[in-house]
Each structure stands twice: as structure tokens, then as C-alpha cells.
């Protein structure tokens, strides 16, 4: 191992002395090609290094069953690594490390004397992926210093002996056959950590590494506290310093294609190129990728190489209606009614409207779109679907039989007929008398009729249906005519007392609507009647 280490150091020192010569050679090759390129900085040249070789040294600190914060035991560690830059952000690194681990435990956490210690020799082979946190946050840029995070996996071989701290007696071991060395125990290990790196020169970087190694076992300290828990039980911390030598390839125009493969060595710096080093046109639309906003999708020149499905001059990526021709103002969408609201968002695309109503008109300006407004030409509240309510009874005028007088919904917006009025009408059923077989009202009926007149005069919203009825004695046709004449006689009496004709209607029903049995004198008497019914709708005058 010592010979290997000395050889690596000598090779490294030799390479350091030739770094400047190599860079000069690169510049000379580029100059010989007489290409007019924007030359990147020396740092950018270094950034194009593909590979790196590293050497580190440091200490290990065990974290497991046999470890104590009262006694910090640090053990040396040495490692070498080979890294490969995969892209601007990610670096792969393979590591080989050798070192020692040790720990002591005088007392158990729950009480009692432990008097245990262990010592282990470890060899680690791991593969990790590393990325620059600053590049992720700010994008790749020229930096002398970087902060990298890494994670990966590998294997660790170890030989461990757990002993009594006082007697030095071996209590448990792995990788030993008695006191003789045996095949080491092998387990998976998962390294995670951070690395601070500072670029001393173009090719040489100093680094400081702090990491945690998680072992897929509880055997490293030869002490298994819980036989049922053997996953990720032992861990150890590694802290080390080292250096990395970085080397790359010759690329005169710095386009990412080595000189030996570059068919267009004079490509201006920073332009996209293909595997042959020539500027690419990946979508074959005749627009070079460096000028093509959509280099992977063919498109016309007027949209900078981006597709325009509807041919409205607005690239699909900026067009909110890629299948319908539109305007720039509408982000590529049509606006058929010209109200400033794209048809796709316009609930009334053929009628000019307002933004508040999603493009729909509102003729009465009540905040309700005409197509949802029951009364589109009359201002009204939303709770009544845009219809007015003149009397404020909560029933829209369009549905209110008494729109100027507050009423009840069960009466279709009209007020409830008073109880005393109903009693008057009940008395009128039997109180209005006629001469036998005639339509002449007897004087005894005048008092009750006068009460009906007073009701009508005091309640101008009332309209009155006057319905005449007979019993079933006699000819039905004559009964029908008689009931009609008697109803009209009552109507004429009310009119003569000041009740407007248009507020009443008189009709005869003959014997068709009995309210009692016509087989008895009492029933016949009840069926011979004049009924009054208050209504609030307009009366149709029959001439």
C-alpha cells in the first residue's frame, strides 16, 4: 500500500508541473485552425475537465451501541477516488477507503456496568453521485469555491473484536477464526455527506469532506443490542481533507466535441452543436437551433421556429387557442363579439357583454346576465332572478297577483282575506233571499248585501266572484238560467251601491255544484245559495 501511495503522489506532482503546458498546447491547436471564436476564460477551460483523481485523509468516529459521548474516540482513515463529470450539475465518484473504528462503553444507558470496547479495521468501496448546491440554486457559473452534496452506496469489509474493557477478554468477533485472521465480514454501506471545494488552480482543487456512513448491519461493533433490529443500526462519521487533480480533453472551439470528432472546429463559442461539432437543426425546419426557440418542434420563421397550428402568427406555446385563429390581444384566441373577452371564456360569445358577467349583456344593469334574468328589461334583485318587487313582499311582480300591495306567497302575493269578511260571506250563503222562481231580491237580504258593499269599498284590492246555485227541482236548463239571473241581480245591487262593475263577475251554475243532499228539504235549502269569493286578479267583464 505504501508503494502504491508513493507512486500516486509522484504521478500527481508530475502532472501538476505539466498543466500549463497542456493548456498552452490547446491554445496553440486552436490558433493553428485560425478560427474566429469567442475564447472562454481559463476557468471555463477547467470546467470542461471530464475526469478527476482525488486523495483524502481524515478521521472516523463510530456511532453505534458501543459509543459514548463522554469518550470521543477518533481513528484515522485514508482514501483515493476517481470521478467523472456527467453533466453541468452531476458528478459520479468511485471511492476506495481504508481506516479504523473504535469505541468504548463503560456504563449502560439504563444503568449497570458495561466495560466494553471494540476495535475494527474497515475497507470501503463506494459509488456516489455529487451535485453542486450553488449550481442548482443559481445555475452553473464561474466559481472558485463550491458546496457539494452527495449520496450513494457501496460495500464495507471489516474485522472486529469486542473485548472487556478491564480484562481485555475477547467477547465477540467478526473476521477472525479464534485469534487468526479470517475472511472479513461484508455489509452494504450508504454514504451521505457534503464537500466544500476550493479551486487552487485550473486543475487542482482542495476539499473538506464531512459525511455519515450508514451500515446495513449491527455487527460493526460486534454487539447486537436487539436481534430483531439489524437494519441501519451502526454508523460512523468521516471527516477529512484532501485534493483533487482534474484533467479533460482538447476542444479548440469549446463546443463540447473533442477535436478528433469535430467536423466544424470553428463553431462560435456557446452555440448548440451535434455529435459532429456542427450547429444543429434538430427539427429540420431550416432554422438553426441557436436561433430556433423551439428546436425540437418544426415551425415557420415568423414564429421563430415554433409550431403555429392555426396559422394566426402566434406560436402554439404562447397561443391559448391553438386550433382557432385569434389575435395577439386575446393571446391567440378569437373574440367574435368584440367585447374584449375571448370566446373560450365568453358565456355569450355572440353578444357584447361585460367582464363581470363573463361576456354576457345586462340590459337593465341589475348585475344579472340577460340570459339568466327573468325580467331582462326591469331592474330587480338577484334573489328574485332579476325581477322587481314593487310592494316588497318577496314575490316578484311578474308572479304577484297584487304587485302594489304586500301579501302572502300562499295567496300569490295578495293579502289574506280578513276573518270578519269571511264571516260576512258565510252569512250571505243563507242570508240572500229571492222571490220563489224569480231573480228578485227580497228586502230582507239588503242588510247582508250592504255589508258586502262595505267590504268592497273598504278593500279596493278585492275583486269579487258572485256565483249563483239552485237545487235540482225543475228543469236543469231553467235552473241554470235562474241561477245566472240571481247572481247578476246581486251584482247589479252592489254596482248600484258604488262597487265598480269591473271589480265583479256574476255567473250561474244551476244545480251542478251542490253542497248538500238534494233528497231532503234541508239539503235543498242549502243548495239554493249565492256564494261570494274574493279574488285579486283582474276581472274579465262579460258583456
Fraction of residues in helix: 10-25%
What is the string of SSEs from the N terminus onward?
HHHEEEEHEEEEEEEHHEHEHE
**Rg from alpha-carbon coordinates:** 52 Å
Low-pLDDT runs: 1-37, 42-47, 539-543
Q: Could you say what the CATH architecture of the domain at 49-247 is? A: Beta Barrel
CATH fold naming of the domain at 49-247 = Porin
End-to-end Cα distance, whole Å, is: 130 Å
> Can you summarize the main beta sheet?
8 strands, antiparallel, barrel
What structural keywords apply?
single chain, 543 residues, alpha+beta, Porin, 60s Ribosomal Protein L30, Chain: A, 3-stranded mixed sheet, 18% helix, elongated
Explain what this protein looks like in three dimensions.
With 543 residues, the protein is of the alpha+beta class. Among the domains are: 49-247, Porin (Beta Barrel); 419-535, 60s Ribosomal Protein L30, Chain: A, CATH 3.30.1330. 18% of the residues lie in helices and 28% in strands. The protein has helices spanning 2-17, 19-32, 42-47, 133-138, 419-431, 446-458, 476-496, 521-527, and strands spanning 51-63, 74-85, 90-107, 113-132, 145-164, 170-174, 176-177, 180-181, 185-199, 204-215, 234-247, 463-469, 504-508, 529-535. The protein has an eight-stranded antiparallel β-barrel with strand order 1-2-3-4-5-9-10-11. Strands 13-12-14 form a three-stranded mixed beta sheet. The protein has a two-stranded antiparallel ribbon with strand order 7-8. α5 packs antiparallel against α6. It is elongated, with a radius of gyration of 52 Å.
Task: Sum this structure up briefly.
The chain is of the alpha+beta class.
Amino acid at each position: 500500500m505504501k508503494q502504491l501511495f508513493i507512486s500516486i503522489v509522484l504521478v500527481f506532482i508530475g502532472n501538476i508541473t505539466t498543466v500549463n503546458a497542456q493548456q498552452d498546447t490547446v491554445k496553440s491547436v486552436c490558433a493553428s485552425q485560425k478560427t474566429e471564436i469567442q475564447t472562454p476564460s481559463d476557468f471555463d477551460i477547467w470546467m470542461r475537465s471530464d475526469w478527476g483523481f482525488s486523495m483524502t485523509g481524515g478521521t472516523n468516529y463510530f456511532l453505534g451501541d458501543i459509543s459514548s459521548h463522554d469518550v470521543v474516540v477518533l481513528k484515522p482513515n485514508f482514501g483515493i477516488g476517481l470521478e467523472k463529470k456527467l453533466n453541468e450539475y452531476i458528478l459520479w465518484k468511485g471511492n476506495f477507503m481504508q481506516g479504523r473504528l473504535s469505541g468504548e462503553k463503560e456504563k449502560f444507558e439504563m444503568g449497570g456496568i458495561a466495560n466494553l470496547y471494540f476495535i475494527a479495521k474497515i475497507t470501503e468501496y463506494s459509488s456516489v453521485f455529487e451535485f453542486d448546491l450553488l449550481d442548482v440554486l443559481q445555475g452553473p457559473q464561474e466559481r472558485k469555491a463550491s458546496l457539494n452534496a452527495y449520496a450513494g452506496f457501496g460495500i464495507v469489509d471489516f474485522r472486529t473484536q469486542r473485548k472487556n474493557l478491564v480484562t481485555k477478554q475477547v467477547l465477540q468477533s467478526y473476521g477472525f477464526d479464534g485469534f487468526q485472521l479470517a475472511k472479513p465480514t461484508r455489509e452494504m454501506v450508504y454514504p451521505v455527506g457534503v464537500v466544500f471545494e476550493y479551486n487552487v488552480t485550473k486543475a487542482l482543487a482542495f476539499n473538506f469532506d464531512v459525511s455519515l456512513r450508514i451500515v446495513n448491519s449491527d455487527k460493526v461493533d460486534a454487539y447486537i443490542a436487539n436481534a430483531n433490529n439489524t437494519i441501519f443500526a451502526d454508523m460512523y462519521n468521516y471527516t477529512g481533507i484532501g485534493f483533487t487533480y482534474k484533467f479533460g480533453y482538447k476542444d479548440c472551439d469549446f463546443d463540447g466535441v473533442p477535436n478528433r470528432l469535430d467536423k466544424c472546429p470553428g463553431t462560435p463559442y456557446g452555440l448548440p452543436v451535434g455529435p459532429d461539432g456542427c450547429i444543429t437543426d434538430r427539427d429540420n425546419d431550416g432554422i438553426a437551433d441557436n436561433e430556433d426557440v423551439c428546436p425540437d418542434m418544426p415551425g415557420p420563421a415568423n414564429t421563430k421556429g415554433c409550431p403555429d397550428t392555426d396559422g394566426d402568427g402566434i406560436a402554439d406555446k404562447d397561443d391559448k387557442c391553438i386550433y382557432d385563429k385569434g389575435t395577439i390581444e386575446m393571446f391567440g384566441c378569437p373574440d367574435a363579439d368584440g367585447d374584449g373577452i375571448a370566446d373560450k371564456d365568453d358565456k355569450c360569445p355572440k353578444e357584447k357583454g361585460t367582464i363581470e358577467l363573463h361576456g354576457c349583456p345586462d340590459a337593465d344593469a341589475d348585475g344579472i346576465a340577460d340570459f339568466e334574468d327573468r325580467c331582462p328589461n326591469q331592474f330587480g334583485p338577484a334573489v328574485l332572478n332579476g325581477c322587481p318587487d314593487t310592494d316588497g313582499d318577496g314575490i316578484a311582480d311578474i308572479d304577484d297577483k297584487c304587485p302594489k300591495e304586500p301579501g302572502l306567497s300562499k295567496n300569490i302575493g295578495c293579502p289574506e282575506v280578513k276573518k270578519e269578511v269571511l264571516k260576512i260571506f258565510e252569512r250571505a250563503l243563507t242570508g240572500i233571499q229571492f222571490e220563489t222562481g224569480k231573480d228578485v231580491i227580497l228586502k230582507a237580504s239588503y242588510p247582508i248585501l250592504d255589508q258586502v258593499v262595505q267590504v268592497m269599498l273598504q278593500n279596493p284590492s278585492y275583486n269579487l266572484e258572485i256565483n249563483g246555485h239552485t237545487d235540482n227541482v225543475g228543469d236543469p236548463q231553467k235552473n241554470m238560467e235562474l241561477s245566472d239571473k240571481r247572481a247578476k241581480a246581486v251584482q247589479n245591487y252592489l254596482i248600484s251601491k258604488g262597487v265598480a262593475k269591473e271589480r265583479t263577475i256574476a255567473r250561474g251554475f244551476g244545480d251542478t255544484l251542490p253542497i248538500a243532499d238534494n233528497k231532503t228539504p234541508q239539503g235543498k235549502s242549502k243548495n239554493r245559495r249565492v256564494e261570494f269569493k274574493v279574488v285579486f286578479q283582474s276581472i274579465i267583464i262579460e258583456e
